[in-house]
Amino acid sequence: QVQLVESGGGLVQAGGSLRLSCAASGLTFSRYSMAWFRQGPGKDREFVAAVRYSGHTYYLDSVKGRFTISRDNAKSTIYLQMNSLMPEDTAVYYCAADQRIILSSIRQAGAYDHWGQGTQVTVSS
Fold it and tell me: With contact defined as beta carbons under 8 Å apart, do 111 and 33 qualify?
């Protein structure tokens, strides 16, 4: 019943920007911690950014200063603003949600109960 739907992916040149969205339904959105993960070709899924129900944010070190995660509780939506994109950012980006995640697990994919289908981001040189 819980559904997460990502959008906003696409093809962009290096140095460009994209804004991803994840619309959630079937849950009490304001009570959930939300996150973005990504999986590049031949790579494991990795943590990108998270925002807890408190509004506190967390980032992968390599995206700090370039990416910004935010949430709009009124719209049950989170966003990932991605600036200064690089080819190594190319991946399928997934939205994830969990109601009771603890801080020590915020970066762990296995800690999240709900996942979207992903949206492709391709950054060309």
Answer: no
Outline where DSSP puts E strands in 1-125.
Answer: 3-7, 10-13, 18-25, 33-39, 46-51, 57-59, 67-72, 77-82, 91-98, 114-115, 119-124
Q: What is the DSSP letter of 112?
A: -
Closest CA to 1 of 24, 23, 20: 24
- The amino acid present at 47, given as its one-letter code, is F
Q: For residue 71, give every residue at least 6 positions away whose Cβ sits within 8 Å of its Cβ, in sequence order, or none.
A: 34, 51, 55, 77, 78, 79
Quickly count: other Cβ atoms within 10 Å of residue 56's Cβ: 11
The pLDDT tens digits of the residues spanning 60-102 come to 999 999 999 999 999 999 999 999 999 999 999 999 999 988 8
**What digits encode the pLDDT tens for the residues 4-27?**
999 999 999 999 999 999 999 999
| Alpha helices for 10-124 (secondary structure H) | none
Which tokens in the block code for residue 42? 């031949």
pLDDT of 6? 98
**CA dist 77 → 16, 21, 43, 98 (Å):** 23, 7, 27, 14
